[in-house]
Amino acid sequence: MNLTKYRSIFFFSIVFFCVSFATAIISSKIANASDCKPKSIQTSPEKTLTLQKGKSANVTVKLKCKDGSPASGVTIETKVLKGNKNISYSPKSSVTDSNGKAVFAITGDKKTEEENAEIKFKTDTLNTTLGIKVQAEECDVGSLSTSPDKKLTLKEGESSEVTVKAKCKNGSPAVDVKVDAIIQSGSDSIKLSSSAGLTDESGKVVFTVSGTKKTKKEAATIKFSTDNIKTTLDVKVKQETEESAETSSAIETKTAVSTEKASETTTEETTETESAGETATEEVVEESVSEEETSETAADTAGEETSVIATEEAAETTTKK
User: Could you tell me the strand order of the sheet in which 93-95 lies?
Assistant: First the structure.
């Protein structure tokens, strides 16, 4: 009987100890949680989220206490600052888990224009904002083109910008598309500012090409590509003296052409002058002939008048006699 009694007491003692220990741990955690004052708030992605229209993505908001530990059990609320018509989200508020995290789903409803949509996540004492860019639709790149097109000529030590434009198969600009740039030949003659870049809102990305050394017979070649679409640009690098010689030759050619044109103009003017002289001579001759004819006509008329008068006088004299 005594043995059974002692066993019961021992058993209850162990149970009491375990319950007390667990209670102490829970109380400690609760105390620690209540002592935690959120010191920092951060989103992932950190600054900007890019979505296709009609697509959704998760945004994780993380809170940390002053000592760097996760801030659990804290309510995070949301508010759209810009672009109410461009995005939607859920839930409206959420409580951080044991890792200090709360997850929100963002959906792109309408394409953003010049300004991104903006959403704010806040607690009682902290807040942070996230920009959201909504693209029109998923883009399958259909073409790449360069400006200048196909060929570029540089002098040694000279640099020039090359704009690569990507278009979707439907003709719209391909935004946020990675374009790779590789020098296929002539790497000792040219340099590239970067080996890759992302297209902007207009589907364009700019690279700088520098001429370092005169190219040989064949021009250097740069290949620009994205996915399975590619285009190439030939780059010719000339020496300064070669450029000057070509410029002088071009000036001489222009001078020769100008001289020929001037000579032709002079010849034409001379021809016109001769034609004008001939025309004037013909006019003088015509005038002389006309004057002679007029004189002859006048003389004939005068003779006829004189003859008539003489006849009349003779008739009068005969009558008197």
Answer: 48-52, 127-135, 117-122, 75-82, 93-95
Domain co-membership, 107 together with 152 = no
**What band does 268 get if pLDDT is binned at 50, 70 and 90?**
low
How is 198-263 classified by DSSP, letter by letter?
E--TTSEEEEEEEE-S---SSPEEEEEEETTEEEEEEEEEE-HHHHHHHHHHHHHHHHHHHHHHHH
Asked if residue 98 and residue 53 are part of one domain, the reply reads yes
Yes or no: say if 60 and 101 are a contact pair by the CB < 8 Å rule. Answer: yes
Which residues on adjacent β-strands are paired with residue 178? 198
Nearest to 264 by CA among 253, 272, 254, 252: 272
Cα radius of gyration (the chain) = 50
Domain membership of residue 161 as a residue range: 141-237
Asked whether residue 44 is assigned to any structural domain, the reply reads yes
Backbone CA torsion sign across 82, 126, 95, 101: positive
Q: Which two tokens stand for residue 226?
A: 């994205």
User: Which amino acid, one-letter code, is at 317?
Assistant: T
Residue 58 · residue 95 · CB < 8 Å:
no
Report how far residue 251's alpha carbon sits from residue 81's, in angstroms, rounded to the nearest whole number: 62
CATH code: domain of residue 222? 2.60.40.10
- The number of domains in the chain is 2
In a domain, 263, yes or no: no
- Structural domain ending residue among the three candidates 92, 118, 135: 135
| Spatial distance between the Cα atoms of 58 and 78, rounded to a whole number of angstroms | 14
Summarised one tens digit per residue, pLDDT across range 179-232 is: 999 999 999 999 999 999 999 878 999 999 999 999 988 999 999 999 889 999
pLDDT band at residue 285 using 50, 70 and 90 as cut-offs: very low
Cis status of the peptide bond prior to 91, with omega within 30 of 0: yes
- Indicate if 145 and 124 belong to the same structural domain: no
**What gap in Å lies between CA 53 and CA 107, rounded to an integer?**
8
Q: How far apart are CA 284 and CA 105, in angstroms?
A: 102
Token reading at 180: 């790779």
